[in-house]
Amino acid sequence: MMSRILLIEDDMHISALLEETLSREGYAVDRAFSGTEALLFLSERQPDLVLLDLMLPGLSGEELLPHLREIPVIVVSAKADTADKVGLLLDGAVDYVTKPFVMDELLARITVQLRKKMNAEASSILSYHEIRLDVGTHRVSIGDTEIKLTRTEYAILKLLLQNAEQVVAKLTILENINQDTPDCTEDSLKIHIHHLRRKLKSAAGKEYISAVWGIGFMLHEKS
Fold first, then answer.
1. Are 210 and 191 in a shared domain?
2. What are phi and psi for residue 205, nearest 5 degrees?
3. Which one, of 141, 171, 146, lies nearest residue 159 by Cα?
4. Beta pairing partners, 216
5. What percentage of the chain exceeds 70 in pLDDT?
6. How far apart are CA 157 and CA 162, in angstroms?
7. pLDDT score for 188
8. Which domain holds residue 44?
9. Residues 95, 52, 19, CA angle at the centre, nearest 5°?
10. Is the pLDDT of residue 152 over 80?
11. Which 8-state DSSP code applies to residue 65?
């Protein structure tokens, strides 16, 4: 799936040039010509990356930046003062390119930031066969079926996924999930795992968690 880039730039010539170049590079491109228009767009769709001019009608780029916390933002501005650059980077921008810019350099910076975003998203997903756990959203699914877990069940499954096909001792489970679920005890752990095992089996049609007598539990695919 192609990455989507939002251009927030009031200069029609620069905006058209960037749209043409980025489209040719295989990106999906949307354009906003003011901070207010950009906010309206963001209320309906989230791009993968934003190219942000600072001197915009309505909301300025500096005022818009706090609304872009979850999106990589490359500032593209004629402001060349080092203090401006440092302030914006500290406020959440991932990069700063000064106008006039070299197109190849800007494209390279875009590639780097999108690669970082993809790597970060991939590292937030724990999976084993058809089981998928998103650390960022706490969403757990098997195939296309989302599974509703309690806080304790989620913490247990996360730990087992991080140690798939390895025996995890009961004490290790309790120590690791204690921060999220301090009320879990050795006795209640068996109940939580029983419920978790049942939910996984209901969605997958097979067992995924085995008890290793006297030691702990293991996540593996049973034939």
1. yes
2. 80, 10
3. 171
4. 169, 212
5. 96
6. 9
7. 86
8. 4-123
9. 110
10. yes
11. G
* Residues 154 and 214 both lie in one domain: yes
Q: Phi and psi (nearest 5°) for 31?
A: -125, 140
Full DSSP string of 151-175? HHHHHHHHHHHHTTTSEEEHHHHHH
Q: Where are the alpha helices (DSSP H) in the chain?
A: 12-24, 35-42, 61-64, 82-90, 103-123, 151-162, 170-177, 186-204
Tens digit of each residue's pLDDT (9 = 90 or more) over 63-99: 999 888 889 999 999 987 888 788 888 888 999 999 9
CA-wise closest residue to 8 among 29, 32, 30: 32
Amino acid code (one letter) for 169: A
Q: Which residue has the higher pLDDT, 70 or 4?
A: 4
pTM for the whole thing? 0.60
Amino acid in the structure at residue 11: D
Amino acid letter, residue 100: P
20, 127, 147 from 56: Cα distances, Å: 21, 43, 45
Q: pLDDT tens digit string along 110-136? A: 999 998 888 776 668 888 999 999 887
Comparing CA positions, the residue from 159, 185, 160, 190 lying closest to residue 174 is: 185
Say yes or no: 68 and 110 in one domain. Answer: yes
Q: Which residue has the tokens 């000064």?
A: 98
Residues 89 and 155 in one domain: no
Q: How many angstroms separate the most distant Cα atoms in the chain?
A: 71
Name the phi and psi angles at 216, rounded to 5. Answer: 180, -135
Residue type, 155: A
**Token pair for residue 58?**
């309505």
Total structural domains within the chain:
2
pLDDT for residue 178: 75
Residues 140 and 104 in one domain: no
